[in-house]
Amino acid sequence: MPRWERGPAVFPIKDNIPTDRFPAVTLALIVVNVVVFFFWQQPSGFSGVDEAKVVEYGAIPYELTHPGEDCAIAGSALACGDVPTDDAPAWMTVLTSMFMHGGILHLAGNMLFLWIFGNNVEDSMGHVKFVVFYLAGGVAALAGQVAFDPDAAIPTIGASGAVAAVLGGYILLHPRARVLTLIFIVFFVTVIEIPAVIMLGLWFLQQAFFAARDLSDPLGGGTGVAYWAHVGGFVFGLVAIKLFATRRREPEPRHPAH
């Protein structure tokens, strides 16, 4: 079973930060992720994916920290070491893993957050820099996961490490932004406006808490979630955003004058 880089469990609808540029890269990244999932991974149902492709193109920490050694499916588990395989080289999986997902809901959650927050981050730095920022964030996220679980024989897949970098950049760019959010409380459904710094800040604290717990339980309490990837991506966004962003926009007035 792969380890997912799972996105936040809330549902933003829109923020109040206007943009000047059309978010071409954000949209292109969403299209690539969707195409990879539906036409290359070819899922069956909401959570079924081709395990062979996940093992070949997902990032396995053991392979990255043991150059020349590989992991292959052996029964219901992965066997790692000097095993015969013609899988993709480990370095390639650093890139391919961030465009793969473990299910439709996994994909939908990541793409929702990328659309809501990615357009503003892209607007702050331009298209080319945003590509570099996003991919570097994904690499940093994977590095965070590998650093704290270097011998794991579990494929890590998902865009949420790179998306976490976007969230880390956004929270510094737009600390006064507000996000219209869909909230589910048991059977009660409502829409409220939440300050982005609270929403994203609480999300990061949650990821950090579960990541710290994983130090004594590397499998994430059985959830199979790559919490250290989320932490690594978010921290990268916090640290790197000022190197990439050249401008920021103010929130739109909540009660514009007529």
Task: Briefly say what this structure is.
Helices cover 51% and strands 14% of the residues.
Give structural attributes.
9 helices, alpha+beta, Rhomboid-like fold, 258 residues, single chain, 14% strand
Helix content: 40-55%
In the predicted model, the low-confidence regions spanning at least 5 consecutive residues are: 218-222
Order of helices and strands: EEHHHEEHHHEHEEHH
Spatial order of the strands forming the largest sheet: 2-6-7
CATH architecture: Up-down Bundle
Q: How does the major sheet shape up?
A: 3 strands, antiparallel
* CATH secondary-structure class: Mainly Alpha
Give the mean pLDDT.
Answer: 87
Number of strands: 7
CATH fold description? Rhomboid-like fold
How many domains in all? 1
Proportion of beta-strand residues: 5-15%
Query: Could you give the distance between the termini?
Result: 56 Å
